[in-house]
């Protein structure tokens, strides 16, 4: 039988046994003419996934486009996304069913959307981005990367099934250092030298691994589960070290971004400052995706109760959703809409950055699915109905775009199920009780 | 909709089932490293955020595992610490032997170091198998790197990310007094005591008491508890508990708008926490005072920066170079400021960045000080009666919230929170003093559980006199130790409460009684299932 020698296998063979330097040119020609596949290996360019959370919805109900399908008129709230209308979808009308649980505002609706179930505040586990990451990770350095602009590391909706919420990076500089600091191996570098310190660190980790059995024997079921999660994290650490010891595949789209400035302070109060931080952070996340450091990123602008304010105004966005009257003529809260506009401009900037990174004759955005969600349908009522969900990107040709998909009264979990299926998760049914769905939204699936 | 206040403690869980693994907190991690290796070892890096459950990070710590990025962070911390411990500056004092050659392995010296450090980090003697594994790994690494200390450093970094260090386990052993039953082993007890009373890893004396079996005797336990409670280091335990109970971890994300509150600077933010902790230590540890007096005491400590925020005339004549010098200070009789609820650590912490939220302050007081749960707002609440602050009819928080409370759907919960918070309206979002809001004089009348009063002093007196105040701190102190809230009907819990009351609510006596009670060491059901496994 003829053995297939991939570029990586050859490099691995050369590297066995220690620190060596290998000179290699940057091979743009690895991509085939369509930019859809690695010519040498035949493997397709990976589809990558992102979630993007913004607080407090879009408005009451007036934001819903009047027509379904293509060429719909974008509502004023989404005007900043106009340049990407052909590369996005807007889902409207979906809801989270409470099934007798109280609506724990800013939490329950997101819990339903991201985990498919509704339960107590302590029950936020297993968001679907982590399920997707498990399927598409394929040995990247980071299983996923979380970030937020508000300064609160708990502003995150990504939670693994066992270990719960994954803390978000709050500092652009720390985010940069984590991804592109000394441990970063540039996939396009001409010379690759494995770090002997990393080799030592990896080999010694087995001592911790050896403690597993003796501890397990002494623990009850719930503590064994916690310990299992610990060792899952330990394996992720080992994987990260192992990857640092391998010469990475060249990625022509990868460039190392500039190091951001140190933060003036952790917490950001002004909306304008938070959006600036957002743009820096999503730039770093996009480069992390293009450089093969991860295949899943999660960005949350703020917590649901957005405390962002405008210069000179003591009242924050969240308080305004409670206190500001709905403008009779416009049908929404004007001061709140100012914040929503800034959030959608930020989303535009994220899309623009992804679309500006060329992978062959397409862009990173074309090879992505960005799932954008919020905590409340109508913000003034803090309702869990009529949720706007936005997706960006064509998921490597697996998702149709440019559509408005109204699903009034339907379970919003259908969008989550659709995203999972498009990303290759072998799931036919998702969610519990009234939020359980088994029918994806076929209109957007190729 | 009428909604009753729920007493959290009585709704709490199981009287016999506590956790058997608890992740040590960042402050316990820091204190442990300082106690084992000395304060010159810098701990640089970040910790995974803690999780607050049922009002305490200590309960959350009993439930959390660790995430991928969390372990990454522990790994960074561990490598930083391990490198320093064996570097040229520290090895002479921290490594108790010299290798035959610094360029290779020395199993005997590695064994000496790892056995002694391991006992302190894992809070128990290492098993022979553990020692052998570590000595072997240290030797292999030393030979590969041609550096004895690189071997020690690599294995020490491993120990610092081991679950045996990051988690405090409660293991059981056969109980000789009750055939067929089990009890917590002595090392688990030693850790529980030390982290509760000193917020750190057990010292050598405590580990020796565990090793000799003394800690499993009534007299031996009492001797150790008395030693720990009477030590000045009990201040660390008191500070750690109240930092958790009062929600000080939220200061990490607290900011105030400097254009509205120029006196609320970053140093003032830190100093406001320190002020309250100093007030607490002074009242409860130094004066052995009544816990309830924390809410009314005129005695506190101030810096000139805090004094400026509070508009208290305080001149620093002691030196010319230390702007943050601390001074004992007593408010004059009748002053609005007295007790910890009038301090910025409460009034600023529970306010948004631009303006106050009486609802937020009231909810915080109910939950943190009285252990009463405030239900979340209903899902279909109609806010149309809450108008814009620029509406000339609603210039103060009281006016806005009165409109809100006129709605039956809102009234149930807001009656529980707003009359408390409105009594603190003389303190702005930064904790500074004010008499008007938007040009209208502030009306600071309030009410707590049927008691009407005016202003922060009236509120302080009502909290002082409320029976929930003392039961709340006691249940939280127990949970801080065990990771779960006690069942208040348990006879052993009642004994603890009776003794707390008999001591005139002396907080150190409460800690002592919790540390001595069999209830605290009751074997968790999860551990029982493992023992029978």
Strand content of chain A: 5-15%
Number of strands of chain A: 14
The share of residues in helices of chain B is: 40-55%
Tell me the distance between the termini of chain A. 36 Å
Helix and strand string of chain A, N-terminal first? HEEEEHHEEEHEHHHHHEHHEEEEEH
Shape of chain A: globular
The coarse silhouette of chain B is globular
Structural write-up:
The complex is a heterodimer of chains A (446) and B (533). Chain A has helices at residues 7-15, 108-115, 128-136, 172-180, 196-204, 206-209, 212-217, 221-244, 271-290, 317-323, 334-355, 413-422; strands at 22-23, 48-54, 69-70, 88-94, 145-148, 159-160, 164-165, 191-192, 296-300, 358-359, 362-363, 368-374, 387-392, 403-406. Chain A has one domain (45-187, 253-444): Alkaline Phosphatase, subunit A, CATH 3.40.720.10. Chain A is built from twelve helices and 14 strands. Chain A has an eight-stranded mixed sheet, with helices on both faces. With 446 residues, chain A is α/β, with parallel strands linked by helices. In chain A, strand 6 and strand 7 form a beta hairpin. Chain A is globular. Residues 1-43 of chain A have low confidence and may be disordered. In chain A, helix 9 runs parallel beside helix 11. Chain B is mainly alpha-helical and 533 residues long. Residues 1-17 and 385-390 of chain B have low confidence and may be disordered. A two-stranded antiparallel sheet of chain B has the order 1-8. Chain B has two domains: 24-169, no CATH class; 238-465, no CATH class. At the A-B interface, strand 7, helix 5, helix 6, helix 7 and helix 8 of A face helix 3, helix 6, helix 7, helix 8 and helix 23 of B.
């Amino acid at each position: 039988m003829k053995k297939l020698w991939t570029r990586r296998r050859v490099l691995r063979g050369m590297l066995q046994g220690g620190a060596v330097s290998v000179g290699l040119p940057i091979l743009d020609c690895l991509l085939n003419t369509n930019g859809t596949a690695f010519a040498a290996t035949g493997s397709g360019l990976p589809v990558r996934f992102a979630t993007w959370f913004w607080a407090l919805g879009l408005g009451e109900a007036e934001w819903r486009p009047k027509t379904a399908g293509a060429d719909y008129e974008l509502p004023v709230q989404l005007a900043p996304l106009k340049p990407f209308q052909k590369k996005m979808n807007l889902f409207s009308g979906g809801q989270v069913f409470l099934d007798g649980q109280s609506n724990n505002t800013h939490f329950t609706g997101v819990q339903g959307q991201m985990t498919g179930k509704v339960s107590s505040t302590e029950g936020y586990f297993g968001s679907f981005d982590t399920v997707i990451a498990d399927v598409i990770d394929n040995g990247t350095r980071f299983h996923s990367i979380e970030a937020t602009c508000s300064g609160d590391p708990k502003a995150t909706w990504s939670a693994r099934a066992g270990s719960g919420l994954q803390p978000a990076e709050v500092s652009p500089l720390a985010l940069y250092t984590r991804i592109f600091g000394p441990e970063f191996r540039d996939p396009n570098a001409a010379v690759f030298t494995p770090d002997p310190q990393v080799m030592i660190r990896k080999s010694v980790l087995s001592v911790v691994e050896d403690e597993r059995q003796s501890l397990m024997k002494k623990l009850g079921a719930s503590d064994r589960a916690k310990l299992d999660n610990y060792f899952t994290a330990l394996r992720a650490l080992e994987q990260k070290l192992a990857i640092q010891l391998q010469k990475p595949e060249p990625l022509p789209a990868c460039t190392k971004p500039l190091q951001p400035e140190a933060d003036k302070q952790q917490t950001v109060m002004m909306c304008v400052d938070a959006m600036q931080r957002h743009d820096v952070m999503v730039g770093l996340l996009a480069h992390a995706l293009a450089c093969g450091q991860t295949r899943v990123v999660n960005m949350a602008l703020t917590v649901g109760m957005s405390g962002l304010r405008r210069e000179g105004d003591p009242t924050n966005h969240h308080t305004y959703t409670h206190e500001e009257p709905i403008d009779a003529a416009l049908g929404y809260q004007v001061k709140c809409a100012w914040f929503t506009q800034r959030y959608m401009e930020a989303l535009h900037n994220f899309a623009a950055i992804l679309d500006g990174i060329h992978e062959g004759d397409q862009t990173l955005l074309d090879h992505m699915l960005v799932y954008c969600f919020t905590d409340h349908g109508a913000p003034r009522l803090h309702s869990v109905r009529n949720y706007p969900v936005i997706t960006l990107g064509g998921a490597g040709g697996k998702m149709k775009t440019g559509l408005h998909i109204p699903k009034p009264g339907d379970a919003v979990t259908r969008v989550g199920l659709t995203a999972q299926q498009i990303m290759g998760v072998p799931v036919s049914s998702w969610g519990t009780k009234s939020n359980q769905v088994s029918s994806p939204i076929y209109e957007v699936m190729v | 909709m009428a909604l009753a206040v729920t007493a959290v403690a009585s709704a709490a869980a199981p009287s016999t089932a506590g956790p058997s693994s608890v992740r040590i907190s960042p402050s316990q991690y820091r204190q442990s490293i300082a106690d084992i290796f000395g304060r010159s070892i810098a701990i640089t890096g970040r910790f995974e955020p803690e999780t607050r459950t049922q009002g305490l990070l200590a309960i959350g710590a009993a439930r959390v595992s660790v995430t991928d990025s969390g372990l990454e962070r522990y790994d960074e911390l561990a490598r930083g610490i391990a490198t320093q411990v064996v570097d040229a500056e520290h090895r002479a004092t921290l490594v108790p032997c010299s290798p035959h050659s610094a360029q290779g392995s020395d199993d005997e010296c590695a064994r000496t170091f790892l056995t002694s450090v391991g006992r302190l980090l894992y809070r128990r003697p290492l098993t022979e198998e553990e020692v052998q594994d570590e000595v072997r790994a240290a030797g292999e690494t030393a030979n590969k790197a041609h550096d004895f200390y690189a071997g020690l450093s690599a294995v020490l970094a491993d120990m610092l990310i081991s679950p045996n260090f990051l988690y405090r386990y409660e293991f059981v052993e056969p109980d000789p007094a009750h055939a067929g039953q089990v009890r917590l082993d002595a090392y688990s007890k030693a850790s529980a005591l030390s982290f509760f009373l000193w917020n750190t890893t057990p010292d050598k004396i405590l580990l020796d008491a565990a090793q000799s079996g003394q800690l499993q005797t009534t007299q031996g336990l009492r001797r150790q508890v008395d030693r720990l409670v009477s030590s000045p280091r009990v201040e660390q335990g008191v500070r750690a508990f109240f930092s958790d109970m009062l929600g000080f971890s939220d200061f990490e994300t607290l900011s105030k708008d400097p254009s509205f509150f120029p006196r609320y600077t970053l140093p003032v933010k830190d100093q406001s926490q320190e002020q309250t902790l100093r007030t607490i230590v002074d009242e409860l540890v130094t004066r052995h005072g009544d816990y309830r007096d924390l809410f009314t005491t005129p005695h506190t400590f101030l810096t000139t920066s805090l004094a400026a925020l509070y508009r208290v005339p305080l001149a620093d004549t002691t030196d010319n170079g230390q702007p943050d010098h601390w001074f004992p200070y007593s408010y004059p009789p009748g002053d609005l400021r007295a007790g910890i609820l009038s301090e910025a650590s409460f009034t600023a912490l529970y306010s948004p960045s631009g303006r106050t939220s009486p609802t937020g302050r009231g909810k915080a007081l109910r939950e943190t000080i009285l252990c009463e749960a405030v239900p979340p707002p209903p899902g279909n609440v109609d806010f149309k009666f809450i108008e814009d602050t620029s509406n000339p009819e609603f210039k103060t928080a009281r006016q806005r919230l009165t409109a809100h409370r006129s709605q039956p759907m809102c009234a149930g919960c807001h009656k529980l929170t707003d009359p408390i918070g409105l009594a603190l309206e003389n303190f702005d979002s930064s904790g500074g003093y004010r008499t008007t809001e938007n040009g209208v004089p502030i009306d600071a009348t309030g009410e707590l559980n049927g008691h009407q009063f005016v202003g922060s002093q009236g509120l302080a007196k009502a909290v002082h006199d409320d029976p929930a105040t003392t039961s709340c701190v006691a249940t939280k102190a127990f949970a801080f130790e065990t990771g779960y809230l006690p069942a208040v009907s348990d006879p052993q819990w009642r004994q603890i409460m009776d003794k707390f009351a008999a001591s005139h609510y002396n907080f150190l006596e409460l800690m002592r009684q919790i540390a001595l009670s069999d209830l605290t060491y009751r074997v968790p059901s999860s551990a029982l299932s493992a023992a029978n496994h």
